[in-house]
Amino acid sequence: MTCSVVEKFQRLTQHMDLEPDEEAPMPSPPRELGGWPIFHAAARGRRVPLLKVLQSSFCERDCLYCPFRAGRDFPRSAFRPQELAQAAHTLYRRRVVQGVFLSSGITGGSLATQDRLLATAHLLRREGFSGYLHLKLMPGADREQVAQAVALAHRVSVNLEAPGARWLSRLAPGKWYWRELFQTLQYAAQARRERLRQGLSVASITTQFVVGPAGETDRDLLRVTQELVWQMDVQRVYFSAFRPIPRTPLEDRPAESLQRVQRLYQAFFLVRDYGFRWDELLFDEKGFLPREADPKMVWAQRYLMHAPVEVNTADVARLMRVPGIGPRTARRIVAARRVRRLQDLRQLQALGVQVQRAAPFVLLDGRRPPFQPPLLPETF
Ligand code: SF4
């Protein structure tokens, strides 16, 4: 690998923590491995070391929050597809990475940029790269390009950035919410369904919101999140806490609170995995989740404290409403009670229930177990 390629990698892997791919509740920073910033993604049920790289850090767009926006002065670079595919494949052969995340700034239009990303992905696969591949879809990519990406990759993503056009105009005035972002996501969902119908492997779909500077509420974000998950086959929504980047138009805005983002992730998992609708969650009068406690605990305090769940009879969906009980533990409870009745918190604990959280909200054979009342903000 020539020195110039290494230099390009150093330039083109900067700021890639802004593009999450991790399965952890909160994205984690990269680790240094042999001088490379290596991230981790979940692929095929395993954590894989991941190279996140831009094909180009030149960009003709000027999204207000972005370090790569047009006109911002910093050293830029770009890879040709052949060059990037070879270099990434070398890292793969040396076992430095097992996966590649490819994104790009936009030059010569979205279609030409997407073509370059696809060319790199095709070459990588042709070189024998069979590892995890995450391909970014450019705003306004066409249907055929999206179908190719869905066929080549394990994961594709389009960043919506905001929960609607009104908010997007405050972050990225040059992007079209419906025509460029939402439609591309729709193409991905359609391509995915078509491949599923044919019994072929499919890429998962993810998206990301920039949380904070557009003034959107948690309610706005979670309403759209539910639509994405329930109707658009989006498997993962990322909430990226805004961080001001020097020499961008938003450099004076405050960074968004990580606690806000943590609550949004908790709410996302409730919508995706626990059967909650966004409008069941409790928001304050301005439309924000409480920061002091997780949204499931706040919901349970309101609705289960005086109507506890009998663990010997409740179905899986009802059990999952209890804090400290997740999908797996709910199924374990149902299996265990076929053998004998559950009468003791120790039995629940042995099944994986977090009993400190669950105790105020359950009945064990008609009796409430001893518990400490949860301390929650009074407004909820
Ligand atoms: S199009 Fe992408 S890379 Fe270009 S300025 Fe906007 S967010 Fe940044």
Structural notes for this entry:
The chain is an alpha/beta fold and 380 residues long. It folds into two domains: 3-276, Aldolase class I (TIM Barrel); 295-363, no CATH class. The protein is 38% helix and 14% strand. The chain is built from 13 helices and ten strands. It has helices at residues 3-12, 81-93, 110-126, 143-152, 165-171, 177-197, 218-231, 258-273, 295-303, 316-319, 327-339, 345-350, 355-358, and strands at residues 31-33, 36-43, 46-54, 99-103, 132-136, 155-157, 204-211, 234-241, 309-310, 362-363. The strands form two sheets. The chain has an eight-stranded mixed beta sheet with strand order 1-2-3-4-5-6-7-8. A two-stranded parallel ribbon has the order 9-10. α7 (218-231) runs parallel beside α8. The radius of gyration is 23 Å and the shape is globular. Iron/sulfur cluster binds at residues 59, 61-63, 66, 68-69, 105-106, 172.
Summary of the model, kept short:
The protein is α/β, with parallel strands linked by helices.
Question: Which characteristics define this entry?
Answer:
binds iron/sulfur cluster, two-stranded parallel ribbon, 38% helix, TIM Barrel, eight-stranded mixed β-sheet
Secondary-structure topology with pairs:
Blueprint lengths: L2 H10 L18 E3 L2 E8 L2 E9 L26 H13 L5 E5 L6 H17 L5 E5 L6 H10 L2 E3 L7 H7 L5 H21 L6 E8 L6 H14 L2 E8 L16 H16 L21 H9 L5 E2 L5 H4 L7 H13 L5 H6 L4 H4 L3 E2 L17
Parallel strand pairs: 3-4, 4-5, 5-6, 6-7, 7-8, 9-10
Antiparallel strand pairs: 1-2, 2-3
The structure holds iron/sulfur cluster (SF4).
